[in-house]
Specification:
By secondary structure, the protein is mainly α. Among the domains are: 2-44; 55-84, no CATH class. Helix content is 49%, strand content 8%. A two-stranded antiparallel sheet has the order 1-2. The longest helix is centred in the N-terminal third of the chain and has 30 residues, at 15-44.
Length: 109
């Protein structure tokens, strides 16, 4: 208890040092809180999407131009899906569509 009284007396005797110490602690606590809040929002908290663990990132490689991991544009995804999975026409107008069991992956655009 004597050490605590001595520390308080010393802080009151030197107000400049006390102000610098308090401001340093406040700045450190504020920076720590800001960094933790950022990291919590980005890395620790799950994404606000259903089945977030199934999200993927698509890249394209243009080795001739030296572009590796180039982001894929949304219109290109729609064009590629039409090329790879053309729309299925009904076999017979009376029996309905032929693609009732079609489980193609859907692109998130």
């Amino acid at each position: 208890m004597n050490d605590l009284r001595f520390a308080l007396r010393q802080l009151l005797k030197h107000p400049g040092f006390t102000a610098v110490a308090v401001l340093t602690l406040a700045l450190g606590i504020g920076a720590n809180t800001a960094i933790f809040s950022f990291l919590n929002a980005i890395l620790l908290r799950p994404l606000p999407y259903k089945d977030a663990e199934r999200l993927v990132t698509l890249y394209e490689n243009y080795r001739a131009n030296g572009w590796l991991k180039n982001a894929v544009a949304a219109p290109l995804l729609a064009d590629r899906e039409r090329i790879v999975h053309p729309p299925v026409q009904p076999r017979d107008k009376r029996s309905g569509s032929a693609n009732q069991g079609d489980h193609r992956p859907q692109w998130g655009i």
